[in-house]
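Fold this sequence, please.
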Amino acid sequence: MKTYDVVMIGGGHNGLVAACYLQRAGLDVLVLEKNGWVGGAATSRELTPGFLYSNCSYVCSLFRPEIMRDLELPKHGLQVIAYEGGAVFTRDGDYIASYRDHDSHRREFARYSRRDAEAYERYAHDVTRQCRFIRPLLMRTAPDPFSFKPRDISELLHIGRKFGEFSADDMAQTLRFWTMSISDFLDEYFETDVIKVYLALSGIIGTALGPMSPGTAYVLLHHYMGEVDGSVGAWGYARGGMGAVTQALASSFQASGGTIRTGADVAKVMIRRGRATGVMLADGDEIRGNRVVSNADVKRTFLKLVDEDELPDAFVHRVKHFKMRGSSGKLNIALDSLPEFPALPKGSSCIRGDLHFTDSMERMERAYDDWKAGRYSADPFVDMVIPTTLDPTMAPPGKHFMSCFVQYCPPQLSGGDWTDRDRDAFAETVVSQIAEYSPGFRDRILHMEVRTPREIEAEVGLTEGNIFQGELTFDQLLFNRPVPGYAQYRTPVSGLYLCGSSTHPGGGVMGAPGRNAAAEILRDMKRKPVDMSPAHDVI
């Protein structure tokens, strides 16, 4: 029986990133994916003739440009098209537009409040300062503050030096920012509710928290740290849907000699004398590996794939209490024509970006109240995009694809598990909201895919449908992610590693967890990493 150098559990984007780096370092890597296609939450699938759906993740920004360069992803077909902005529709028939251009953005704010337009300059400066502090940490292994290893001490000193560049006031503001709610943070800058709502949306997407919950200010920052073509904070569409990201990764991996096996559902990590020796598939097939890397989330890995007897009790306790609460649903809709939104001026570029209907912080918080009560939101927050306005490859000529990401949608309803009837009623709530702002919208629908946390977990394997593989709150970041003492991609089982979004620096289609995990694996093997941008290498 062949023994691989590395067996990778899961063909999501982080698993493929790690596999690419390991294969390029001269290892023999096998990627196992339970579905008949790779991609995890970053997939493009044709579920109705002629239409490509970005089934789960739907926009691109966070994916690290260093990884794109290292793995030559544009050469393998990846192209990201930046979009200009978007809009929030208000109940009185107006709207507030957002633009990628800073001055245009500021002028739109001035239409509502000159004071807020002036405050936007200060807000943008303060958030940018936080981004500059955090972004370099994304591609570094988080140090263990309780370790006396030279690497950890050196990394702590590095962070301390960066933090020391702040003034005393900046230090205080940074500590507050990491722990405060997005609502409180925005109140310190703005007076207009709809402006605060537009900016708050990045603080609650994918998170089982409301805008008034402590910790949501950092979630906003997490979403601000991406870039498209060098434009920091910009968002865009991957041409051909989000599956284009993972298809490019798979192509890069296979071009280096790596092997991908689909339809391979891993049921168990095989362990002998405290060391991982391979995996057993659901069909009973055994695959040997000198090292096993799991792209699955921390709960699925250690509560389903590893026998608890192989793990320390304290570690299992921590894993069970790692916060991983699903809060999101998704509608993917094939449209016969481009929907009309009477509030927008004819020909407005806003329709090519993200569109929203929640126009007050109270509406957003009440939507979260429904989630807390075990209900999908009666007045949901919807992040809606129409990628085909910039990428015609996803639909037939004249037709369009719409993606609707929905907050808040609980993993279980108060009356029990989700049923198909519940799923359909949830979809109707979202469609009804869109139809309020877009006359004739229902008549344009040709096909619709509806995903609650039940469908997301069943297909993608994300526990409770949590898109970040764990909440991005301060208690679950850096050396606490996922478990203190095991935040450097290693686990209590020798030869078993994590590389998914449950690890530092967290969720989103970023690739940094996979890249960082590969660096640590190669370090343990005393192999020199190849094709890794040196400016961000681990100390």
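The chain is about 35% helix and 20% strand. The first helix runs from residue 13 to 24.
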